[in-house]
Amino acid sequence: MTTSNAPDLLPGTLDLLILRTLQSDAMHGWSIAERIQQVSQNVLQVNQGSLYPALHRLEHQGWVDAEWHTSELGRRAKYYRLTPSGRRRLAVAAGEWDRMAAAIGRVMKLA
Amino acid sequence: MTFRDLRLRVRALIAPRRVERELDEELAFHLEREAHEQQRAGLTPSAAAARARARFGSIALAADACRDARGTVFVDALVRDVRDALRSFRRAPWVTLTIVATIALGLALVTVAFTVYNALFLRADAVQHPEQLFTVERLVRPDLPHPPGGDRAWMPFSRREYELLRHGSDVLTDALGMVSDVVARIDGRVTNTTLVSGNFFQVLDARAELGRPLIPADDEPATSQQVVVLSHRGWRKFFNGAPTVVGRSVRLNGLPFEVVGVMPETFRGLSVVPPDLWVPLLSVRRFHLPTYLDEYEGKPLDDSVVEVVVGRLKPGMSPEKAEAALTAWASGRSDIKRNRPGHPNQLTLTPNRGTLWPLSFHGVIAPAFFAFGLVLMTGCANVANLLLARGLSHRAEIGIRLSLGASRWRVIRQLLVGHLVLALAAAICGVVLSRGLLAGAIRVASTVMSPESAELMRIAPLPVDWRVLLFVAAIAMVSTVLFGLAPALQTTQVDPARAMRGDAMQGARSGRASQILIALQVGAAGLLLITSGAFLRSAFAAANAPAGVRTSDTLVVPVTHEPFRPAILGALTTDPLVEAVSASWSSGVTGFPAYGGQAVITRPASSATQDRSARDQTTDKVSYAFVSPGYFNVLGIDIVSGRGFAPDERTMDAGVAVVSEAAVRRLWPTGKAVGSVVQFEAQPPPDTQQAASPRAPSRPYVVIGVARDIESTLADALRQFADPNVYLPIGLQNPGTSLVLRVRSDPDEARRALLDRLVAIDPAFGDITTVRAMVNGRAVGLWMVFGVTVVLAGLALLLAASGLFSVLSYAIEQRKREIGIRMALGATTRDIAGWVMSRTFISVAVGIVAGAGLATAFVKVLAKWVPFWLGNIATIVEPVAYAAPVILIVVTCTVAVSLPAWRATRVDPVTTLRQD
Predict the structure, then answer these.
(1) Three-class SS of residue A64?
(2) According to a count of CB atoms within 10 Å of the terminal CB, is the N or C end of chain A lower?
(3) How far apart are CA B197 and CA B209, in angstroms?
């Protein structure tokens, strides 16, 4: 349904992207998806059907917190915010990602 | 699971609608925001909304995935299933009611059994750390195996030894002493009293409900006031629960005592049923302890008996280590009597948690569980049958669900949840019902018992505690599986395509399942009926067993305190109710085996064989008892040859003896005993165990007569009158004898009247027993067991019959077409009826054969396990015992079957054939 030429996200990376996106600000679901798309220059398109389950899962894991605020449209929206434990989780996951990306990069160069 | 996670889940469970609304709102906002964005890019509002939805994908799917993340799907489904179930119950209230009532009845019966079991074996409430409590025993034969709860003879400690044990050994933090089941009179009414050391309540760490418990100072010789603490039962029984009882003065065995406290209802000390009151051990000499008669009379307090010593082990001490340490400690002391001279003094520790040993009563409780459980099972089988039948009518609906994509497991789960709801409702009704059943059973039991047993009858409080509730819940779940699983599996085994066409014909397997269930039910009913027959015969046998002695008008009067003997004798001999008074002094009174010794028997020269040596002698072990001249007459023991004792032959010095027929058979092969001489050998001085038993002086006794054998099959109940080999004469005034009376009226009436007179003479007087009650005690137990089994068997039979009826009715309803075709092809009414009946014939026959076989085995096992006090279980295989239940079952089943069969014959072939 969405752009078919966008690469599939690696499993587990959606959580990482969400956590990273929330690092500085509280956001609602739509703007999270929008931001990821913008920052990745339209390479990464978040499947919106899996965005909300991921957010709810992160909320249950205690890495994000949700609050209802009035949005830019003047209507109530659910804003997600990183919790301290989410911040720690992001640090760990980002480190892992860096190591993984560097390793894959090295393999790609040498092979 | 983090705390936040838990909070969110709980929130989702508590306020599911709100959480759902929030989810909807969140997703709706997303769509609106997206549409807004698209609109800004130049689309029309409606096109923008469509675009947004298209970009999002399936909203329902996303919402579902969010719900999955919530982790409450299982609970949501459960709630839905329960709601579904409730709805379906409302649609079929009668079926629901039938199921709940059937299961509730079964559960109630099992709960009754468990409540009793719980109270006797599991509970020891209001006692702190019962696992640290151990009975310290000095067994007579410590070298023999001594299973807990088994028969064991022990040498009780003296008060001095108890004090040494308490303070001297370093394995016990403290030890309490007690003498239980003492009969004492409070203001003339008989009580069951336990004498306890002053630290009793401290060691158990129990608090009083009113006033205070006993304290060590109450048990010291210097104490100024004799005190007593009431149990909750005793308080209710003797003072009607008056709150002002503390401080009141009562006369206990005629002496003044002050009531200082009342214990709470949950406290029962270390016995299964609480006594009426606790009195300091100090007062032991004011109470009648027949077993230890010589132990304390006229002796200092230090020598008084402490029947049971229970120590609290130091924390962390293993019983084995403690036992070894105690044994070493006791062996090193000269002031602790040894169990066997020359051996180390061995002390034994046995756990004492204030409950019975399951092993000692499994003979009663295990069969009870089994029998009660059988009725529950029969009920479950009934419900299973009902559900199987109903399941068939649900097939179309289930087929639809399956074809819409529900997994079979999901549908089974839904059905089982519905059944579980039923079972839980049944469990609640079952607990309530079990209370009623228990109360009823206790009432019936107390009216059936003899007055003297009823007076002393103490029934353990049978409360419903968490264990009972847990048990009921567990059994309810088990029965859900029993009655619900097979129908659920069966019903979901449908081909959706066929089911939706409405072609829900009964499969062959459903028929087989219900036939197996019918066979089970008939088998259970047969088992219970035949077993109850065995109890009935046993009870009859016990009731009609020859007692060997007169039972219709005889009483046994113990002389509790010798100083009152002349007054008691005076009262009895002048009482118009009393026809004759005799005395007996037999080992049976104290409960020890018949006493005897080596005796030389010199037989007179046989007149027929003059050539043989003039006299012939043998030495053999001979048991004896002492009786007054009137004894044979009072108890109706005939003198078959020679004569009984003359009125003036009242002492052993008379030098005469009467022998029993059994003794003649054994010791006089010629059959001529009269005229022989029996001389007992001098015996060693008595040891403590048998101190209370009489002994015969070593002197010649001339045999003057032969008494008829007391051919009693109730040897245990009538131990007091057990046949000795030799009767020796004794007088009414002889200390230690108990009096045996024959009265002119009903023995129970006479007992009451005489009791009033004798208590007026001796306020501490014991109790009068009718010989009839001694004999009936045995039969009463069997009658009660019979009553219970016959009620259970009746219920099982009724359930089996109703199961047959409903299964058959349903099967015929299902096969109307087949019947119609058969009739159209020329089958007669008889053919049809026969065909219907034959469908059940095999299940019933299999059930009967299985039930009879099981019953035979069950009764055999019971006869081995049932404790002696319940009596002998008749195990002989009698045709009548089997024929009667079998006929009853066959007749009942035929009645249950005939109505559906009759209905089958009324099927109109034309109508049924026209239907399709």
Answers:
(1) strand
(2) C
(3) 20
Q: Which amino acid, residue B476?
A: A
Instruction: Tell me the average pLDDT of chain B.
Output: 80
Contact B489, B513 (CB under 8 A): no
Q: How far apart are CA B186 and CA B174, in angstroms?
A: 31
Instruction: Tell me which amino acid residue B434 is.
Output: S
Q: Where are the beta strands (DSSP E) in B232-293?
A: 249-252, 255-262, 277-280
Name residue B621's amino acid: K
Backbone angles phi, psi at B310, to 5 degrees: -120, 120
Question: So what's the pLDDT on residue B395?
Answer: 73
Q: Are B588 and B663 in contact (CB under 8 A)?
A: no
Q: Which helix (H) or strand (E) holds A77?
A: strand A76-82
Cβ proximity of B100 and B426 under 8 Å: yes
Q: Lowest mean pLDDT of B133-147, B275-289, B312-326, B524-538, name the range.
A: B133-147
Query: Is residue B315's pLDDT more than 60?
Result: yes
Residue of B nearest to A2 (CA): B55
Both tokens of residue B785?
Answer: 């067991």
Helix segments in B565-660, DSSP class H = 565-574, 631-635
Closest-CA residue to B631 (of B619, B623, B640, B639): B639
Neighbouring C-beta atoms of residue B239, cutoff 10 Å: 17
A53 and B68 within 8 Å at the Cβ level: the answer is: yes
Spatial distance between the Cα atoms of B915 and B903, rounded to a whole number of angstroms: 18
Residue A1 confidence (pLDDT) above 50: no
Q: B530-567: per-residue pLDDT in tens? A: 888 887 887 777 777 777 788 888 888 888 777 888 99
What span, in angstroms and rounded, lies between the C-alpha atoms of B259 and B248? 6
Tens digit of pLDDT for each residue in B249-293? 888 887 888 999 999 888 888 887 788 999 998 887 777 665 554
How does pLDDT run across B747-769, given as a tens digit for each residue? 888 998 998 888 888 877 877 88
Q: Which of B4, B36, B66 is facing A53, going by the closest CB pair?
A: B66
Angle, CA B375 vertex, CA B371 and CA B379 arms, to 5° = 165
- Report CB contact under 8 Å: A76, B29: yes
Residue B506, pLDDT score: 47
Q: Which residues of B touch A71 (CB under 8 A)?
A: 29, 33
pTM: 0.69
Kindly identify which residue of chain B lies nearest to residue A73, measuring between CA atoms.
B33
Are the C-beta atoms of residues B579 and B743 closer than 8 Å to each other?
A: yes
Strand partners, B98: none
Indicate if the pLDDT at residue B590 is higher than 50. no
pLDDT for the residue numbered A3: 40
| Least trusted range by pLDDT, from A42-51, B205-214, B224-233 | A42-51
Which chain A residues contact residue B22 at CB under 8 A? 68, 78
Tell me the DSSP string of B674-703: TT-EEEEPP-PPP-GGGTTS----SSEEEE
Residue B567's closest CA among B832, B842, B762, B404? B762
Question: Which pairing describes strands B656-660 and B726-729: parallel, antiparallel, or unpaired?
Answer: antiparallel
A75–B57 CB contact, under 8 Å: no
pLDDT band at B160 (very low <50, low <70, confident <90, very high): confident
